[in-house]
Design brief:
Elements: H1 5-16, H2 40-54, E1 64-70, H3 72-87, E2 92-99, H4 105-113, H5 123-134, H6 146-155, H7 160-167, H8 172-175, H9 184-191, E3 204-209, H10 217-229, E4 234-239, H11 247-262, H12 281-286, E5 293-294, H13 296-309, H14 317-337, E6 345-346, H15 347-359, H16 362-368, H17 370-380, H18 390-399, H19 407-414, H20 424-436
Parallel strand pairs: 1-2, 2-3, 3-4
Antiparallel strand pairs: 5-6
Length: 451
C-alpha cells in the first residue's frame, strides 16, 4: 500500500529539515508469521535495530536519534522510548515523538461495539487478530460468531484496506461483536498491550487531534497528567477539530521543532522525579511511576524493565511468567490495602494495610510471591540449577536498575543460609520481609530497584 498521503506530507517536514528517516517492518510483517498488532514490546527492538542498520550504510550517520511514530507507530515509539537507552547504549537516544498513540483501547472497543446496528469498525478485527499473536491464550472465537471469527482470521494476514472494505458492509450484530468491549477477557487482553505509565529517561512529545475517535480527548486528559507525574519530561499539544488520520500533518511542524531541540549537541538532561513528601521508603520503591499511588502499571513497569534487560521475547513463557508474578503481588497488595476499591493505593492506605499483609502469614506469601520468585529465578538461572549463583544474581539486579557495585552486598543479604546461592524460598522470604518487616533495609528491597 505504501504511505498514506498524510504520512508522506509529514515526512516532507523531516526530509526538508535535513533528517535521515528510516523505518522498519514490524515483527511478522513480510513473512509467514502474523503480526502482533499493537504489542509494543514485540516491535520496540525492531524500531531501534533499524537505526543500528542505518549506521552500517556507506554514508556517515550520527549516533543521535529520535523515535517518531503515528498511531500504531506512536504506540511502538512509546515502547521504544522506554527501552532505547538500555537496549542500544552505543547510540545516543534523544527522545520520543508520538502522534495519536492508541491509549486505553478497552474504551475504544466498548464505544465502537455498543450499538448492534453500528457499522463494524475495521480496527476491531485487526486489534483482535493482533491479540491472538501476542497472547496465544486469547481466542476471539469465544467472543464472536462464526462470521466474526473468520474476519479476525483474515485480519491476521490481509492488509488493512481489505479488512476496511469488508467491515464496511457489516454491522456489529452481523459478527457477534455487540458489547464486545464490556467482556472481561477482552478488557484484560487489551490492558496487556496498553502503554505503561512509567518514568521515561528521555523527553517525550505527544500530539493528538481534538476530533479523534480512536483517541478521545477524555482518555488523553487522563493519561497526560499521569505521565507528567511519573517525572517524564513531556511536551503535549492538541489540535482542535483534527481527526485521527490528519494528526501527522497537523503536528509535523511541532514534531520537527521538538526534535531540533532534542538533537542539539548538548545531551538533554534526564528529568528527575518530582520531589515527594512521601516518607515511606517502601512505598517510594514500589511507586515506579512516581505519581503518589500504587497501581497495576507500577508492577507492569517493574516486569517490563526486567524482561527487557534479559532480551526475552515478549511472547515467551518466561516473559509472561515474570509479568504475571509481579501482577499477582500487586493484586495481593491491592486486596489488603485498597480500602476504597478504586484500583489504586495511596501512601495512607499502604501504611494501614501493611499489618494485614503481615498477618496473612508465611503460607500466604508462598502463594503470593511464589510465582514471582520462581519466574525471576528461571529467568536468571542460566545453568539450570534452580538456584541463583552470584553472577546470575548480579545480572538479575542489573535488570532491576541496581548498580553492579552494590550486587555483592545484595547477594550476601539474600543468601540467608550462607550456602553461596539464592533460592526461591529465600527470595520469597525477602519479599515478605520487605513488605511487612520492621526495616526498609530488607534484602527484598533489591527486587524493586533499590540502588
Amino acid at each position: 500500500m505504501g504511505l498514506h498521503p498524510a504520512e508522506r506530507k509529514h515526512l516532507e517536514y523531516w526530509l526538508n529539515a535535513g533528517y535521515l528517516v528510516v523505518a522498519t517492518d514490524y515483527e511478522g510483517l513480510g513473512g509467514e508469521e502474523p503480526h502482533p498488532y499493537l504489542n509494543g514490546e514485540a516491535v520496540a527492538d525492531d524500531v531501534i535495530d533499524i537505526v543500528r542498520a542505518a549506521r552500517q550504510l556507506d554514508h556517515p550517520v550520527d549516533t543521535r536519534y529520535v523515535v517518531a511514530g503515528f498511531s500504531q507507530g506512536a504506540h511502538a515509539a512509546m515502547f521504544a522510548g522506554l527501552m532505547a537507552t538500555a537496549y542500544a547504549p552505543e547510540l545516543d537516544f534523544r527522545g520520543t515523538i508520538a502522534m495519536a498513540p492508541p491509549l486505553r483501547l478497552a474504551r475504544f472497543l466498548r464505544e465502537q461495539t455498543e450499538d448492534p446496528q453500528g457499522v463494524l469498525e475495521p480496527l476491531v478485527p485487526i486489534i483482535l487478530g493482533g491479540l491472538t499473536v501476542s497472547q496465544p491464550g486469547f481466542r476471539p472465537a469465544d467472543h464472536l460468531n462464526e462470521r466474526g471469527a473468520q474476519l479476525v482470521e483474515q485480519a491476521r494476514s490481509q492488509p488493512m484496506n481489505h479488512i476496511a472494505a469488508v467491515a464496511g458492509t457489516l454491522t456489529n450484530a452481523d459478527v457477534g461483536a455487540t458489547g464486545l468491549g464490556d467482556q472481561v477477557a477482552v478488557q484484560d487482553a487489551l490492558r496487556a498491550v496498553d502503554i505503561p505509565i512509567s518514568l521515561m529517561d528521555r523527553p517525550v512529545f505527544i500530539g493528538v487531534g481534538g476530533a479523534d475517535i480512536i483517541l478521545p480527548m477524555e482518555v488523553v486528559d487522563g493519561f497526560i497528567p499521569q505521565l507528567r507525574a511519573s517525572g517524564t519530561a513531556l511536551r503535549y499539544e492538541s489540535y482542535p477539530g483534527v481527526e485521527h488520520i490528519d494528526v501527522p500533518v497537523a503536528s509535523a511542524a511541532d514534531a520537527v521543532a521538538v526534535a531540533e531541540e532534542l538533537v542539539r549537541p548538548a545531551q538533554p538532561t534526564v528529568t528527575d522525579r518530582p520531589e515527594s513528601t512521601i516518607d515511606d521508603a517502601r512505598f517510594r520503591l514500589l511507586d515506579v511511576t512516581g505519581d503518589g499511588t500504587l497501581q497495576a502499571d507500577d508492577f507492569d513497569a517493574l516486569a517490563l524493565r526486567l524482561v527487557q534487560s534479559f532480551g526475552l521475547p515478549p511472547r515467551s513463557p518466561g516473559a509472561a511468567a515474570v509479568r504475571e508474578g509481579y501482577r499477582q503481588l500487586w493484586e495481593a497488595i491491592a486486596e489488603r490495602c485498597d480500602a476504597d476499591r478504586n484500583g489504586e493505593v495511596d501512601v495512607a492506605e499502604f501504611g494501614a494495610g501493611l499489618s494485614r499483609l503481615g498477618a496473612a502469614g508465611a503460607a500466604y506469601f508462598d502463594t503470593v510471591a511464589g510465582g514471582l520468585a520462581s519466574a525471576v529465578t528461571e529467568l536468571a538461572d542460566t545453568d539450570g540449577s534452580g538456584l541463583l549463583e552470584p553472577a546470575e544474581f548480579t545480572r538479575m539486579l542489573a535488570g532491576l536498575g541496581v548498580p553492579a557495585d552494590r550486587a555483592e552486598e545484595a547477594f550476601r543479604q539474600f543468601d540467608a543460609d550462607g550456602g553461596g546461592s539464592a533460592s526461591t524460598s529465600e527470595i520469597i522470604a525477602a519479599v515478605r520481609d520487605f513488605l511487612t518487616g520492621r526495616s526498609v533495609e530488607s534484602p527484598g528491597a533489591w527486587l524493586f530497584g533499590r540502588g
